[in-house]
Design brief:
- About 75% of the residues lie in helices and about 5% in strands.
- It has a 3-stranded antiparallel beta sheet with strand order 2-1-3.
- It has 2 domains: about 60 residues, Ubiquitin-like (UB roll) (Roll), CATH 3.10.20; about 230 residues, Up-down Bundle (Receptor-associated Protein).
- It is extended, with a radius of gyration of 29 Å.
- The protein is built from 16 helices and 3 strands.
C-alpha cells in the first residue's frame, strides 16, 4: 500500500513524501526509524486502473538510468562529497518521478543512520543483489567511488550487449508479424473468392492447393475459435513459464535451440565471468560472489549450476573443479580458472574471460544479423510462393483444358 505522509525531522524541518508499506502502522514505524516524527499519514488514492498500471510500467528505472546514476555517484564520491549530500543533489536533479522518490527515501534512510548498502537494499526492484553487495564491499574496503565506477562500467557493458541482441530481434519479429498478418488477410479475403471458382470447375486439386483452401476455410468459418485458442495457448504458456518447472524448461530450451542457443549460452557465460570478476575486484569473498552471481544470471540452468558450485566450494572443492562437472561450462573456461587458481590471479583470468565472451557475443550477434535477411527472404518468398502457386496452377490447368 502507498501512503502519503507529513513529518518533522530532528532539526524541526517539515518533510513530506510517499512510502510503501503493508499497513499504516508499518509505515509509521519505518518513518520513525528514519528519525522522523509523523504529523499525518493517509493512504494514497489508487485510481487509474489499467491506465495507471501502464503508466507505472513505463515509469521505471532502466539499466541505462542505473549506468548514468552510478557514474554520477562515482564522480561525486571522487570529489569527496558526503553520501548524504550526493543523494540530496541527485534527488533534486532526477527527471523520473520514481527515481526521484527512491533517492529521497534513501536520503531519509541515510539521515536516520542507515548505511548506503542498507538504504539501497530497501529497493530490490531497482537495485539487484549484485549491486547491493558491491556497494557493501565498497563500504567495507573504503573504495566506494571505485565500486560505483565498476558498477557503471559493468552495467554499461550489460546494457550494450542486451540492447544489441534486442535490436537484432526487433527487425525479424516485425517482418514475421507483418507476414503472418498478410497471409491471414489473403487466406480470409482473397483465397475464398478464388476457391469458389476452382471448386465449380470440378477438377481434382493438387495436394498443396487442398491444404491452402482447407486452411482458408478453417480461418473463415472458425477464425474466432482459432484466435481464442491461440490466445489461450499463449496465456497457458505464460503461466507455465512463471512456474519454477516452466522457467527451468524454457531456460533449458533457450540454450539448446539451434543458432540462437549458442548466442544465449555465450551471453550467460559472459555475464557469469563479468559478475565474478567485478565482485572479486571489489573485494567480495568468492563464495558470496558465486551466490550473488547465481541470483542475477537470469537463467535457471546456470543458476542451479552456480548454487551447486557454492555448496561444493564450501565443502572444500576448487571453483575450477566444481565447474568441470557441468557440460554447460566450456572446457576453456574451466582450464583458465584452474590456471588462475594456481597462479593466484583468478580475478585477472575472469576479466580476460569476460572480455573474450563479450567479443564472442558481439561476433555471434553480427553473424546472426547477417543470416536474418536471407532467411527472411526464403521464409517470406516460400510462403507467398506456395499460396500463389496453389491458386495459379489450377487456374492455368483450367485455361489449358479449355483450349
Amino acid at each position: 500500500m502507498l501512503f502519503r505522509y507529513n513529518a518533522y525531522d530532528a532539526a524541526g524541518q517539515e518533510r513530506s513524501g510517499e512510502i510503501e508499506a503493508m499497513s499504516a502502522d508499518v509505515a509509521v514505524g519505518a518513518l520513525q526509524r528514519r528519525g522522523l516524527v509523523v504529523a499525518s499519514l493517509e493512504e494514497a488514492a489508487a485510481g487509474g486502473g489499467l491506465f495507471a498500471a501502464k503508466l507505472a510500467f513505463f515509469d521505471r528505472v532502466t539499466t541505462k538510468d542505473l549506468v548514468i546514476l552510478s557514474r554520477q555517484i562515482a564522480t561525486l564520491f571522487e570529489a569527496r562529497i558526503s553520501a548524504l549530500r550526493i543523494f540530496q543533489m541527485l534527488a533534486s536533479d532526477a527527471e523520473k518521478p520514481i527515481l526521484q522518490r527512491i533517492l529521497k527515501e534513501m536520503v531519509a534512510d541515510i539521515q536516520g543512520g542507515s548505511s548506503l548498502s542498507a538504504a539501497l537494499g530497501k529497493h530490490p526492484r531497482v537495485f539487484s543483489a549484485f549491486y547491493i553487495n558491491m556497494v557493501a564491499a565498497g563500504e567495507e574496503s573504503g573504495k566506494i567511488n571505485d565500486v560505483f565506477m565498476f558498477l557503471a562500467d559493468y552495467l554499461d557493458r550489460y546494457y550494450q550487449v542486451t540492447a544489441k541482441i534486442r535490436g537484432a530481434m526487433v527487425y525479424p519479429a516485425f517482418i514475421l508479424t507483418a507476414f503472418v498478418g498478410i497471409m491471414v488477410l489473403l487466406l480470409t479475403s482473397v483465397i475464398p473468392q478464388i476457391a469458389d471458382i476452382l471448386r465449380e470447375t470440378g477438377q481434382k486439386m493438387p495436394i498443396y492447393t487442398q491444404i491452402v483452401l482447407g486452411t482458408s476455410t478453417v480461418l473463415v468459418d472458425y477464425g474466432v475459435f482459432v484466435a481464442v485458442g491461440v490466445i489461450a495457448l499463449g496465456f497457458a504458456l505464460w503461466r507455465y513459464r512463471s512456474t519454477e518447472g516452466g522457467r527451468a524448461t524454457f531456460d533449458r530450451l533457450k540454450i539448446s535451440v539451434p543458432v540462437f542457443g549458442r548466442l544465449f549460452k555465450l551471453l550467460y557465460l559472459s555475464r557469469i565471468a563479468d559478475n565474478l570478476h567485478t565482485m572479486l575486484a571489489a573485494g567480495v569473498p568468492m563464495v558470496r560472489v558465486i551466490e550473488v552471481s547465481a541470483s542475477v544470471v537470469d537463467n535457471a540452468v546456470y543458476e542451479t549450476i552456480l548454487e551447486d558450485v557454492v555448496e561444493a566450494v564450501r565443502g572444500g572443492a576448487s571453483v575450477s573443479e566444481s565447474f568441470s562437472r557441468y557440460e554447460e561450462i566450456p572446457g576453456i573456461m574451466v582450464q583458465m580458472i584452474r590456471v588462475g587458481e594456481e597462479a593466484g590471479e583468478v580475478g585477472t583470468i575472469l576479466k580476460t574471460l569476460a572480455v573474450f565472451y563479450q567479443r564472442e557475443v558481439n561476433s555471434a550477434v553480427d553473424g546472426l544479423i547477417s543470416l536474418i535477411e536471407p532467411a527472411l527472404v526464403l521464409i517470406l518468398g516460400g510462403g507467398v510462393g506456395i499460396v500463389v502457386a496453389s491458386v495459379l496452377i489450377p487456374i492455368y490447368n483450367i485455361a489449358t483444358s479449355i483450349q
